[in-house]
Model the fold of this input.
Amino acid sequence: MTVIETLTQRNEAFASSRFSADLKIMPSMKTMIIGCVDPRVDPVDIFGLLPGEAAVIRNLGGRITPATLQTMAMLRIVAKASGGEIGLGWNLIVLHHNDCGITRLAHPRSCSRSTSASPRQTSTPWPSPTPIRPSPLMSPP
Ligand SMILES: [Zn+2]
Done:
């Protein structure tokens, strides 16, 4: 069985027995989690989340980037369109972890230990992060 067949089979099992159409689009724990894409640190596993309890945004390093802010702003718009509100009383969790792969990008020398890249290749400076700017989609609380 291929990976896709396995995942398709798991999706069918989830859809038929564990998905609840009664779940609200607004997380029942009024919680938004920003976490890393690293498969070892899934917030669902770490916090024992059940479907519908939290909104989870994952990216490399669990960073608050302009794209993260834009996603958060769009979630707020979706919440408003659904009759809800994201704001006071909500929890925002920024979840980082040990041995995150993004730390290897910040230190080119550590990359050279695990690859056969030449020092010239690894001495290329990592680009400066893009400053976070306020999103025009976000309104003050
Ligand atoms: Zn990570």
About this structure: The first helix runs from residue 3 to 18. Strands lie at 31-36, 55-59, 91-95. The chain has six helices and three strands.
